[in-house]
Design goal:
Chain lengths: 550, 382
């Protein structure tokens, strides 16, 4: 069973679509890759500039811290300091002026004085965990080196600290520690819109910031992320930064590309399917004709002939089909011609009688078609012609003595005569593909009122073609001279037809036949198109009947 | 899976978030709190991004007041400004008037004093955000009872090394209400007249103000931070301050009591402190005025306004500010809230003139020899 999915049309259309899909996807992948690479470059530049900016800011903060530390240390080297209101005010003014968060002065292990801004400098977490807690820092400070380090609390504030020893002379050792809180604003103030940043001290994240505007997008997972160390402090602590490019960059770059890509794929698929279907149909139309022609031949449509529209292999195939169909038809027609000749010889019919019966039959059929009472296809007309030619083929089996007996027939003879339609139908049936013609031949002697033979059919039970042949055969018999009778006048024959209309003949057929006769009297040709003498052509075996499958 | 993600990426509607810039002098955790609330509002209102640009107050003043909407140079969309600037912004046609339906909302949610502060000639020109008012912060261990006057406070016996009172003389918002309640202050007070008044004020609080250290403490430009530190360390018994010191003192878990400013002397009328209100204004050239105004209005809703101001150690302006919520979070802040109830808003012109006159008066007093000003003082060890 052939389904649409198994048809060549489907396969060709599908292959068109598949090729178009692969091509458009390949094109999309290439274009997306280019955009991807270029967007990655932009993201990389953005990350580079953000790393540089935050690194610069951090460096500037550390430098400011160290400058404040060194400045305070220089002044303290020659200035007395006590825990007095005025000294506190002095220190506070330095805090306010330098924007550091806290200044502490230690005398060995004892805190001498401190000044801090409200917050975050005033937070206890900003207070310096002094020397015992920072052995590495303490060692450097005690060695007289300026030190910068990070004070990391378990939960809370992370501070940058810069300390130095103050030379006060003698055995007294003072240390100045200046503090600056590492605020999340270090990140958020410089991050471009949508960028996410995480500040690390060592491996520990201390601040995470995202500049509003990026939102959560489907492209978050695609954004470029990078981690770098931006600063290394004296206590060997590293300050690192992990930045993730704004997802909207890759989103804005890729989304239109992908949307356009999907649209392109959709349109190209649609076009590929439509064009593929169109071209496949054009390519396959001769095959369809061949398929239908073959099927028609198989159903007995011997007149099939296909138009040759192409000059390629399919055109050649069509020509070969026509040649094959011609040969089959010629073979059939040869058999029909042979049978017709046998009938002529057997029943003293003349070739002219068969020609007239056939011609008048086809002319009557044409009049019926003109009046809208019947409609035949070319194949049905071919069948009608064959039936008209071979309507008495059953007489082959009847002995000549009975067939040509001048006197009345005996009962058995009569039986034999009455059986000839069945015999004729059987002969034609055995030829194959002419079952309809056999059916007509079987009913060619049935009378309209049911008085005919062999089955006593009546009215519409009798095939119309048989009713036509009966009337035409009778009319020709009446109007032609026979060895045993004279020809009757045309008007007598018409009167006889009318007299028998409704009894022996179908009144409608009689009227159509009379119109054919009248037109003939007036010199008007009837049946010039379809009733052009098929038998005549058979006799000569010279004509081809052209027809397209119907 | 990757293909599915790419498909979801392609199918996700391209977003074009509206971006608004907000200028503010808030910094650090205050700015972070404001940003957080704006993000929360933006998430519920529209796909909008509000970027905070933190600048120092002086730079903010230069930027906002120098802004010319007709040239649109240095464009900003929203700004958090003191309401004392609104009059000038209105004159320059730099800001949008609050639409009537928003005014109706503000009338229901915002305290009348804050709404008055943002009004110019009957037009509401901004959305009140926060208030600030001076009150007296006391160490309850040193004052079993709240002193009835500053004179009484300074006379209270204190442990050695403990200073009685911190005042920021450089801030007229602290001192002038005290002076005005003590002696009637003429509306057009000249610097010499103000200097004279200040001298009498210092004399009235003798002998405390005779201490040189105390005078230096009152005059330093970093008075709020120094006084807060001294108070936290138990070396200062009381100070006149706004609520911004609460962050430090509550972090250090120092006991404190906040009360409205008392009269200067026994029998004097109680001072009427100045309320300093900040508001959100919307630029006249903001491309999305409706959106910007909606964002500003959302900041005045009761719960959000209380939460935001608690985070910033400022006073909510929402009229029905949830007292229980404030009390639970910060009883001291509630003391400032009480002080705000009796405060008044100074008109912009009045404030500007007073400020200039006060700076000159202070300079006159500073030029005088120490002996003339307050008698001889001792250098005090803490």
């Amino acid at each position: 069973m052939r389904t649409f999915r198994s048809s060549i049309l489907y396969q060709l259309t599908f292959s068109h679509g598949l090729v178009a899909l692969i091509l458009s996807l390949a094109l999309g992948v290439v274009a997306t890759s280019i955009v991807w690479v270029r967007t990655r470059a932009v993201e990389g530049q953005l990350l580079d500039s953000s790393f540089a900016l935050i690194s610069d800011q951090l460096t500037a903060q550390v430098r400011r811290l160290e400058e404040t530390r060194d400045g305070v240390a220089r002044v303290l080297a020659s200035r007395p300091l006590a825990y007095t209101t005025n000294d506190l005010i002095w220190l506070h003014e330095i805090v306010g002026y330098t924007d550091v968060d806290r200044i502490e002065v230690f005398s060995d292990l004892r805190k001498l004085i401190e000044a801090y801004a409200l917050l975050p400098g005033g937070s206890p977490e900003a207070a310096t965990q002094w020397l015992p807690s920072n052995p590495q820092v303490a060692a450097l400070l005690q060695a007289g080196q300026p030190v910068t380090w990070v004070q990391l609390r378990e939960k809370g504030l992370t501070t940058l600290k810069a300390g130095v020893q103050v030379f006060k002379g003698g055995s007294v050792r003072w240390y100045v520690v200046v503090t600056l809180a590492l605020q999340p604003s270090l990140l958020t103030s410089v991050l471009p819109t949508g960028m996410t940043g995480v500040l690390f001290v060592g491996d520990r994240p201390i601040h995470q910031g995202q500049q509003a505007g990026g939102g959560r997008m489907a492209a978050d997972f695609l954004a470029l992320a990078r981690r770098e160390t931006v600063m290394r402090l004296d206590d060997d602590t590293s300050i690192g930064l992990e930045l993730t490019a704004p997802p909207h960059l890759i989103h804005e770059a890729l989304a239109p590309m992908l949307q356009a890509g999907f649209l392109l794929v959709l349109v190209s698929q649609l076009l590929a399917l439509l064009l593929g279907h169109h071209f496949a149909r054009r390519l396959l139309s001769p095959l369809h004709d061949l398929l239908e022609g073959t099927a028609a031949m198989a159903r007995g449509h011997l007149t099939v002939r296909l138009p040759v529209r192409r000059q390629d292999e399919l055109g050649e195939l069509t020509r070969e089909f026509n040649r094959m169909a011609d040969e089959i038809r010629t073979t059939y027609l040869g058999v029909i011609a042979t049978l017709a000749e046998v009938v002529e010889a057997k029943s003293h019919y003349t070739r002219e009688h068969i020609e007239r019966v056939e011609r008048l039959t086809m002319a009557t059929a044409q009049v019926l078609e003109e009046r809208g009472w019947a409609r035949w296809s070319s194949h049905q007309k071919f069948i009608l012609s064959v039936a008209a030619i071979l309507h008495d083929v059953g007489k082959i089996q009847i002995g000549n003595d009975i067939l040509n007996k001048p006197g009345p027939l005996s009962g058995s003879e009569r039986e034999e005569i009455l059986s000839h339609p069945e015999v004729g139908a059987t002969i034609v049936e055995r030829m194959g593909k002419l079952e309809r013609a056999a059916e007509i031949i079987r009913a060619c002697h049935e009378h309209y009122d049911g008085s005919g033979y062999p089955r006593g059919l009546k009215g519409e039970e009798i095939p119309l073609e048989a009713r036509i042949i009966l009337a035409v055969d009778a009319f020709d018999a009446m109007t032609q001279a026979r060895p045993y009778s004279k020809a009757r006048a045309l008007e007598d024959a018409i009167a006889e037809l009318r007299a028998e209309a409704g009894r022996q003949f179908d009144p409608v057929v009689v009227e159509a036949l009379i119109e054919v006769v009248r037109r003939g009297q007036q010199g008007e040709a009837v049946g010039t198109r379809d009733s052009s003498g098929f038998y005549r052509s058979l006799a000569g075996h010279s004509g081809e009947v052209a027809a397209t499958p119907s | 899976m990757g293909l599915l993600l790419l498909v979801s990426l392609a199918c996700s509607a391209p977003r074009e978030p509206v971006s608004l810039s907000l200028l503010t002098a808030l910094s650090g955790s205050d700015a972070a709190a404001l940003q957080e609330h704006l993000n929360a509002i933006a998430a519920t209102v529209e796909p909008v991004t509000v970027r905070l640009h933190t600048v120092p107050l002086r730079a903010l003043e230069d930027t906002v007041l120098a802004f010319n909407p007709h040239t649109a140079g240095g464009r900003w969309d929203l700004a958090v400004v003191p309401t004392s600037w609104i009059h000038r912004l209105h004159q320059r046609q730099a800001i949008l008037e609050v639409p009537n339906h928003h005014v109706l909302s503000l009338q229901q949610t915002v305290m009348p004093l804050a709404l008055l502060a943002t009004s110019v000639q009957g037009q509401v020109m901004g959305y009140p955000l926060s208030a600030n008012v001076e009150a007296l912060v006391l160490n309850p261990h040193l004052f079993p009872h709240v002193p009835t006057s500053l004179a009484a406070l300074t006379r209270t016996p204190l442990p050695p090394g403990v200073l009685p009172l911190g005042v920021n003389l450089r801030d007229p918002a602290q001192v002038l209400p005290l002076l005005a309640s003590w002696e009637t202050l003429p509306p057009d007070a000249t610097p010499p007249a103000l200097a004279q008044l200040l001298r009498r004020f210092l004399l009235a609080l003798q002998p405390a103000t005779a201490q040189r250290d105390l005078f230096n403490l009152w005059m330093t430009s970093t008075a709020p931070a120094v006084q807060a530190q001294l108070f936290a360390e138990g070396r200062l018994a009381a100070l006149v301050s706004g609520p911004q010191v609460l962050g430090l003192l509550e972090t250090l878990q120092k006991p404190l009591v906040v009360t409205p400013l008392p009269a200067v002397c026994e029998g004097c009328s109680p001072p009427k402190p100045w309320a300093r209100v900040t508001a959100v204004v919307v630029s006249n050239v903001c491309p999305y005025p409706d959106l910007a105004q909606q964002l500003a209005l959302e900041l005045t809703t009761l719960e959000r306004n209380v939460q935001l101001n608690l985070a910033m150690n400022l006073l909510p302006v929402a009229g029905g500010a949830d007292e229980s919520q404030i009390l639970a979070k910060s009883p001291a802040l509630f003391g400032f809230q009480r002080a705000l109830a009796s405060a008044r808003v100074l008109k912009a012109a009045e404030l500007s003139e007073t400020w200039n006159a006060w700076e000159k008066a202070l300079a006159l007093v500073m030029q005088e020899p120490q002996q003339e000003r307050a008698g001889s003082g001792q250098r005090g060890e803490l």
